[in-house]
Design goal:
This protein is an alpha+beta fold. It has a single domain (3-86), classed as Alpha-Beta Plaits (2-Layer Sandwich), CATH 3.30.70. It is built from 3 helices and 6 strands, in the order H-E-H-E-H-E-E-E-E. The protein has helices spanning 3-9, 17-26, 39-50, and strands at residues 10-13, 28-33, 54-62, 66-69, 72-75, 79-86. The strands form 2 sheets. It has a 4-stranded antiparallel β-sheet with strand order 1-2-6-3. Helix 1 packs across helix 3 (39-50). The longest helix is centred in the middle third of the chain and has 12 residues, at 39-50.
């Protein structure tokens, strides 16, 4: 798997209050990932991109919410979330120097 494919696997980190607490307390990071990838591919991509050791990967398929704007009905897109547990002592800083 080359770098371009790894960047297609991991789309973006999810920075929320809950994910920040998980990062601080359990050394877990949350990412939005491609819907077609599996846990093994996610773990390999995180290890190679961020140079850390991955212990566990949990995935969740998120269903897009239904939205309404006036008479028009719509739906947000479905997406996949991955919660990655890192080895004790490893960490990734998303906001270095801020």
């Amino acid at each position: 798997m080359n770098n371009l494919e790894m960047y297609k696997v991991i789309m973006r980190p999810l920075i929320t209050e809950k994910s920040t607490l998980q990062k601080d307390n359990k050394n877990q990071l949350t990412f939005e990932v491609d819907k077609k990838v599996n846990k093994i591919e996610i773990g390999i991509a995180v290890e190679k991109l961020f140079n850390v050791k991955v212990l566990n990967v949990n995935t969740i398929n998120m269903v897009g919410k239904k939205k309404r704007q006036g008479k028009n009905l719509g739906k947000k897109r479905d997406w996949k979330k991955a919660i990655v547990t890192l080895k004790e002592g490893d960490h990734i800083d998303f906001f270095e120097g801020v």
